[in-house]
Specification:
Number of strands: 12
Strand order of the largest sheet: 4-5-6-7-8
Distance between the termini: 61 Å
Shape: flat
Strand content: 5-15%
Largest sheet: 5 strands, antiparallel
Radius of gyration: 32 Å
Structural class: alpha+beta
Length: 455
């Protein structure tokens, strides 16, 4: 156990890491929420409409990229290596409302590259909470699965309440940038630091990144975070800049403008009237007055440039093009599945990584509950692939009829079916079998035949 002074010193060390990471994560957050700085410098004294156009030039693709991945990720059960459900563990999941709250974990992991859950003792079930990396910093040693220390900024207390976790204890602290004050210490009983890390991707070179030589943009805070947002920030700047140029061209040169040489309006009202009229009648020398019009600007290049950047973003992020460009066309189920193949592969990779982290989280919950969770347990992900329901049912039917796969083993592969649905189906099937056996026994007795020995 750390002494109060040692807990404060450790918290100060981890807080330094948190401060450095928070600055980078805040940049990612601004891009995700569409509040990043425009990569164009607006000169001082520019007209108000220019500033308004600059503020409205953010065509933000980041939420689409992140949500496309998160909305395809939903755990709907946990089973042991034999495929049997683990109802006690699933009860802990349900009691913490993680059917809904799991999306916060995946959204943070996809957005920032990392997210955390904290699992602590509770009654009747352990308490599982999701924590953003903007509110938590961790220090890892040789074990990549469990941190040595973790420091969490609690949502209550105005940002001045903190918790420090190690493999045995939870230390309650109060403080800010100036320092920390120890409040209390309690035992959690997990024998590991009760914090589980969810990564967006696993890369063995994370700790040995080379110095970047790239020229930075005005948003210029270089981030070392991974996730879906940081690699696309430069492309997002391109889209914003193109949109700003499009708005400027539309406002000032998107329509034809007339000019008059040799005549000037005496007042501003006369100028407005001249601009609105469809017929000019000027009491001037025709030889001195010339009238004409400027051709309007062709906006096609701006629009195609932005569209090309969005398609580039779709390719880089493995997001279906139609989700970013909103090109709704008639597509067959097969064509739609082909269009979403890249996202399917990306989702499967994340499901493997997040699934292992979820199993680690549930192992920790089981430890608090006194349950020996099998090492070969695995989570069940909801099927959200772009296939028609009829084609799926047909394929499942052929698996059962042609290959002899028991129908009960295929129930969980029906789109939209949850673990609770499967359990209900099994109970109904067992009840149906019992009624069938009873009917057979009654028929045999009525015919004078001996009842089955196992009846």
């Amino acid at each position: 156990m750390l002494s109060p002074d040692a807990a404060v010193a450790t918290a100060r060390l981890v807080h330094k890491v948190h401060t450095e990471e928070r600055a980078m994560l805040d940049v990612v957050r601004l891009f995700f929420k569409g509040r990043q700085r425009l990569p164009a410098v607006i000169p001082v004294g520019s007209p108000r409409e220019v500033r308004v156009m600059a503020a409205s030039s953010r065509v933000n693709m980041m939420p689409i990229v992140v949500n496309s991945l998160v909305q395809a990720s939903s755990v709907e059960g946990i089973r042991d290596g034999n495929g049997d459900p683990l109802p006690d563990l699933w009860g802990a999941w349900q009691s913490n409302r993680f059917d809904a709250r799991q999306t916060a974990v995946y959204r943070a992991a996809a957005q920032y590259g990392v997210a955390y859950t904290v699992v602590l003792p509770g009654k009747p079930y352990p308490v599982i909470r999701s924590v953003s990396p903007r509110s938590m910093a961790t220090l890892y040693g040789d074990d990549p699965d469990w941190p040595v220390f973790a420091l969490e900024r609690l949502p209550r207390g105005g940002g001045k309440r903190w918790r420090l976790y190690d493999s045995e204890h939870v230390y309650e602290l109060r403080g800010d940038m100036e320092g920390f004050e120890w409040l209390s210490t309690s035992v959690h009983g997990a024998e590991v630091t009760p914090v589980v890390r969810f990564l967006d991707e696993i890369d063995d070179d994370d700790e040995d990144e080379p110095q970047s030589q790239a020229t930075r943009m005005p948003n210029e805070q270089e981030t070392t975070t991974r996730g879906q947002v940081a690699p696309l920030m430069g492309l997002q700047d391109q889209i914003d800049l193109t949109t700003f140029a499009l708005q400027i061209a539309t406002h000032y040169a998107g329509s034809k403008q007339r000019y008059v040489i040799g005549w000037a309006a005496d007042t501003e009202v006369d100028a407005i009237k001249a601009g609105a009229t469809t017929l000019f009648t000027l009491d001037e020398d025709p030889a001195k007055v010339q009238m004409g019009e400027f051709a309007q600007s062709d906006l096609t290049g701006f629009i195609k440039s932005r569209e090309a950047s969005l398609k580039h973003g779709a390719a880089l992020s493995q997001t279906p093009v139609h989700e970013l460009t909103a090109d709704i066309i008639q597509m067959s189920a097969e064509a739609l599945a082909a269009a979403e193949a890249g996202k399917e592969r990306k989702s499967q990779e994340r499901h493997t990584i997040w699934g292992e982290a979820t199993e680690q989280q549930m192992w920790l919950a089981g430890k608090y509950m006194g349950i020996d969770v099998p090492l070969d347990s695995q989570v069940v992900w909801r099927d959200t692939s772009a296939r028609s329901f009829a084609a799926t049912v047909d394929a499942l039917g052929k698996l059962s009829s042609l290959l002899g796969v028991p129908p009960q083993e295929l129930w969980e592969r029906i789109p939209g079916v949850t673990q609770q649905d499967v359990e209900r189906y099994r109970k109904a099937a067992e009840q149906g079998n019992a009624f069938s056996q009873l009917a057979t026994m009654l028929d045999q007795q009525a015919a004078g035949a001996p009842a089955p020995a196992n009846a």
